[in-house]
């Protein structure tokens, strides 16, 4: 498996698990209705809760994971080509759309839950010129639902990434040596004519003189 694919999947998977874990932790630490005291018909006293920091951190981790997936993968329309099969491209498109849908919902739920848990101390509750006698708290299941959607968004993002970046088994990507091509190269030896080793023959000049007079 390529090193880049392993690194991207590891980082994004870790951020997805971190966002989900922080979302469930925020669900356990959220301000509950029984913890809020109505000190007056228009004033609610909220305790300090770590759900604000947990929810905000979960939202940031989810956003970073979504950015990494989309930046490393690129535009889905630009990645379609003859090397991409129709099934892989359709799967990537479906995961891309659903991943963004679940990401937006989870991100908004985490931010809303964190904002409602940020207030502490005495808070005056009113709407316009009329006072509201109910103290606002995060409903049960908001952070938990956001955690599940965060995990689903990251998983769909990884499927989208792997569908457009097929895994290749290559020794060269891990620093291995490339296969040798010596078997396909014809090895030959240059052929040269053998040198002439015959010694020169000397003929006496009288030989030609005698042939002329005979």
From TrEMBL:
Entries under InterPro entries matching the protein: DEAL/Modifying_wall_lignin1/2 (IPR009606), DESIGUAL (IPR052222)
One GO molecular-function entry: kinase activity
Keywords linked to the UniProt accession: Kinase, Membrane, Signal, Transferase, Transmembrane, Transmembrane helix
Cellular localisation: Endomembrane system
Gene Ontology cellular component terms for the protein in this record: endomembrane system
Transmembrane segments: 52-77, 89-116, 136-163
Primary location: membrane
Topology with respect to the bilayer: Multi-pass membrane protein
Transmembrane helix found in the keyword field: yes
Family: Belongs to the DESIGUAL family.
Identification of the protein by name: Serine/threonine-protein kinase nek3
Native species: Actinidia chinensis var. chinensis (Chinese soft-hair kiwi)
Organism taxonomic ancestry: Eukaryota, Viridiplantae, Streptophyta, Embryophyta, Tracheophyta
